[in-house]
Design goal:
It is built from eleven helices and 16 strands. It has helices spanning 2-40, 45-52, 97-101, 103-108, 146-151, 166-170, 234-237, 243-258, 263-269, 302-308, 385-400, and strands at 57-62, 65-76, 82-92, 119-127, 136-145, 189-197, 202-209, 224-227, 273-283, 289-298, 322-329, 334-336, 339-352, 355-357, 363-365, 369-382. The strands form three sheets. Strands 1, 2, 6, 7, 8, 9, 10, 11, 12, 13 and 16 form an eleven-stranded mixed beta sheet that branches. A three-stranded mixed beta sheet has the order 3-5-4.
Length: 403
């Protein structure tokens, strides 16, 4: 009897040990998900100040609260007369030899992030508009890859040995390396603030990313925050960028998927869109990665948007996929202690798989049914710094137009 009892005790102890070990693994995994972004790149203004001082520091007032962000504006609304786009699809970015030698270790830093193997558009040179060139801006593009992005801009502060990082080796002064000499992938990003409603009740679409996003895991971004994708315009533009695509078309071709409405629904409201190209800037946190900024007004009510909003539970999940989109009252947005707070109308959707009996009494899954619940509450999230840069550009635009 004592032997049997000892066996039970040992089995129970083993089970308890297994449960504890499993919980520890889950905790460590959760912590790695949560802190991976901070290990790869510092998005702290205090760290930027140590290296760049007041260089590139922009100040923006968001609903009576002063917020700071580091970015280098290259092009702003109203400060140019024309844009020339010089695109060479055959000009491919080559990774530095040292970065290549550290590729496996640098990629390991992204173990909790989803990745893709895509061609990206690289801004390799920019000519600012001046009086001498007739206030004409020139953008020169080539090609890079998302892999190169993960090995450069998106892993700048990951410690290789001691205090050696990609930033300390290639971006170690108080000013950014000029684009044409940069060792970073520097692919082009798109950031847009998308509004619905009217002047009396203006609502900003605020997406929240998932836990496997490459940056700002479980945090919020601008309404559209994505890389300029080659596959969206390859046929229409014969693989070459144009001014029209930069100024407007990249928004029109990507907005439906970004704000989670179907292409059919988008066609119904496509003529109700107003797009303002706000400018171009380099992201200091990510070593000078360029981003295009926009403001977009959809002349529809928030109810009309909710009726079109849909995140499918069965569609394939892409990189930096949006988990949910919230509507925030523009006047309620606050930024405190690196968290963005706002009164958000959170639209939650619950999907059910009802079993439908056929004529033989067998149960089959007929279709997805969804129920929607809108909750109004003040919520706080970590945010992507480019969201603040976008708000800065937008306020520059409003000031210039007397708003």
């Amino acid at each position: 009897m004592d032997v049997v009892w000892d066996i039970y005790i040992n089995l129970l102890a083993s089970l308890i040990a297994f449960v504890i070990a499993y919980e520890m693994v889950l905790y460590v995994s959760f912590s790695l998900h949560r802190y991976e972004d901070e290990i790869k790149v510092s998005y702290k203004n205090s760290d930027m100040e140590k290296q760049y001082g007041q260089n590139y520091l922009q100040k923006v007032e968001i609903n009576n609260l002063n917020v700071e962000v580091y970015c280098e504006p290259l092009l702003k609304y109203g400060e140019y007369t024309d844009i020339i786009v010089d695109d060479d699809p055959d000009r491919h970015f080559e990774l530095d030899t040292f970065i290549k030698s550290q590729a496996f270790e640098l990629l390991a830093a992204h173990s909790k992030s989803k990745s893709v193997h895509d061609t990206t558009v690289r801004l390799y040179d920019f000519v600012k508009p001046t009086k001498e060139n007739g206030y004409t801006a020139v953008m020169r593009f080539g090609r890079s890859s998302y892999l190169a992005h993960l090995l450069t801009n998106r892993v700048l502060d990951y410690p290789l040995k001691g205090d050696i990082t990609i930033r300390s080796l290639y971006e170690n002064t108080d000013t950014l390396t000029e684009l044409r000499y940069a060792k970073m992938s520097n692919h082009l990003g798109i950031n847009a603030l998308v509004f619905v409603g009217n002047n009396e009740r203006r609502m900003l679409l605020v997406p929240r990313r998932g836990k496997d996003a490459t940056v700002v895991k479980n945090g919020v971004t601008a309404s559209m925050a994505l890389r300029l994708k080659m596959d969206t315009f390859e046929n229409k533009y014969a693989s070459k960028l144009t001014k029209d695509y930069i100024v407007r078309d990249c928004i029109e071709e990507n907005i439906a998927s970004a704000i989670k409405i179907s292409k059919d629904d988008w066609q119904k409201i496509a003529n109700k869109i107003q797009i303002v190209f706000l400018g171009l800037a380099r992201d200091i946190y990510e070593g000078g990665k360029p981003t295009l900024f926009y403001a977009v007004d959809l002349n529809i009510t928030e109810e009309e948007y909710w009726n079109m909003y849909h995140i499918s539970p069965t569609e394939e999940r892409g990189i930096d996929e949006v988990e949910e989109i919230m509507l925030a009252q523009w006047e309620s947005i606050e930024v405190k202690n690196s968290l963005l707070s706002a009164y958000m109308h959170l639209c939650t959707e619950q999907f059910q798989l009802p079993f439908i009996s056929d004529i033989k009494g067998k149960k089959t899954v007929e279709q997805h049914q969804r129920t929607r619940k809108i909750i109004t509450a003040k919520k706080s999230y970590s945010f992507e710094q480019n969201l603040i840069s976008n708000i800065w550009f937008y306020q520059q635009y409003l000031t210039r137009n007397g708003h």
